[in-house]
Design brief:
By secondary structure, the protein is of the alpha/beta class. Helices cover 40% and strands 9% of the residues. One of its GO terms (biological process) is sulfur compound biosynthetic process.
Length: 344
């Protein structure tokens, strides 16, 4: 069964460790936000299998254009942890000099597009990169991610239509956690949700048909299935774009500004059979890749690693105040010089 996945036992173990690492980082960064070390944070719980499976599938020649909930993809892609956590905690070594919100990475050198806050606003930029790849006859595809709520925006329509018309080498990846903040993707029986509407009436993956290409729905709690589907899509996107809808569950709040208790009672609890971490454990145990002892040892190892890293970056120095006025203009105007003097 291992051979059928095209992943070695070592690769499967490394992927599982990253799933555990993402889960632990998520908890610790959420706590850091509550303690005042982060001004804002976007929880990841429920997306781990999507992130790690996707990170395994992305090739060197591909371009990744993420949205704000893709922390784990970067871990699996091998982006240096200093680059990731320096941005999240806005430290002095941050590539963005502490100027953006946590989880809003800008990693051009790694073929990763800049994360922006407006929902679906990056999809047209990702489509432009795919158009450039095709025009220049470059190898590789573009993969861009978004939540289910993004499929109700004009940017989604424009990007999908343009990609379909020009047959761009592009994978649209919807991480459907079934709630666009407080609105369910599809009709729900949740008694706490007393509104009569939902995010969309039709299945998201079927929307690709309107733009002339295909869409598929996959299990977003199974990292091997995510890997297989994403790798195949990236390999075939040179012929036509594709839309993937990966089904998972948002197990926590949308962000630290959200209280899901106000609008839902049907959340998937940690440790349940729908939890991607538990799904991954069962999958690998059935494949004879890990044992209960391995699971405990990996969790202990990752707990120690993530705790030390979070402690380091919580205490790391912030960018110097003089950097506030840097990199703004090629020739600094008088009013910036004046403001710089006020800061000093």
């Amino acid at each position: 069964m291992i051979e059928e996945t095209d992943i070695s036992k070592e690769g499967l173990l490394a992927a599982y460790k990253n799933i555990v690492m993402e889960r632990l980082f998520d908890k610790k960064m959420l706590n850091a936000s509550r303690q005042g070390f982060l001004p804002f944070y976007i929880p990841l719980m429920g997306h781990e299998a999507i992130h790690i499976g996707m990170g395994m599938a992305i090739r060197d020649e591909d371009f990744f254009y993420p949205y704000y909930r893709d922390f784990g993809v970067l871990i699996q892609m091998g982006i240096p942890i200093d680059t990731i956590l320096s941005q999240v905690f806005a430290t002095a070594t941050d590539n963005e000099i502490g100027r953006d919100m946590p989880d809003h990475f800008s990693l051009k050198k790694y073929n990763i597009g800049a994360v922006i806050t407006p929902v679906a606003g990056h999809l047209t930029s990702a489509t432009g990169i795919a158009y450039a790849k095709k025009y220049r006859k470059e190898s590789g595809s573009v993969i861009t991610t978004f939540g289910d709520g993004a499929t109700s925006t004009p940017d989604f329509h424009v990007a999908m239509n343009f990609a379909g018309v020009y047959k761009l080498p592009m994978v649209f990846f919807c991480e459907n956690n079934q709630f666009a903040i407080s609105v369910p993707t599809y009709p729900t029986d949740d008694k706490a949700f007393n509104q009569t509407y939902e995010e969309t009436r039709g299945a998201i993956y079927k929307k690709a048909e309107s733009y002339g290409f295909s869409g598929i729905r996959i299990d977003g709690t199974n990292f091997i299935e995510v890997y297989r589907a994403t790798r195949k899509a990236l390999e075939n996107a040179s012929e036509d774009p594709i839309l993937i809808e990966a089904m998972t569950y948002r197990m926590g709040p949308h962000s630290t500004a959200d209280d899901p208790n106000k609008y839902r009672t049907d959340r998937v609890p940690e440790g349940s059979e729908k939890d991607p971490l538990i799904v991954s454990q069962k999958l690998l145990k059935d494949m004879k890749v890990i044992t209960d002892l391995d699971i405990k040892q990996i969790n202990d190892e990752m707990e120690e690693t993530t705790s030390k890293l979070i402690d380091t970056y919580e205490k790391a120095p912030k960018p110097d105040k003089e950097t506030m006025m840097g990199n703004l203009y090629e020739e600094e105007p008088w009013y910036i010089s004046e403001e710089r003097g006020d800061i000093q």
